[in-house]
Amino acid sequence: MTKTTLQNYRADKRRLDRISAQLAELETRVCVQSAADPPFSKHSVTLSGLPPSDEVTALHREKAALERRTAAVRAYISAIPDPQTREMFELRFVQGKKYHQIARLLGGMSEDCVRKRVCRYIANSPKNR
Question: Which of 26, 32, 24 is nearest to 51 (CA)?
Fold first, then answer.
């Protein structure tokens, strides 16, 4: 996991939300009445779906890629064995806190200590070797 991938997590989540909203806007809903089947009583049925277009396909493809990337970041952070380091990563990359804010929240640390610990963990991560 690279630092850039971790830093892009919040932007990826925002883009994922925008794509979901865009797909919801493109979704069509049609209400039809049916009385063709026995007992031939009229009832309403709502049909919904997305139109088959290149735009919808591209949005689904991008959404799937973003979901994979965000899930990989969440899995990477949750696999950090040290709870304090895991919390640093959570605060920094998921919540977007600055290093000085993290140091203040965790107490008893300097901003440099937090920054170095995060950078060293990323550099010494088994996936980066």
Answer: 26
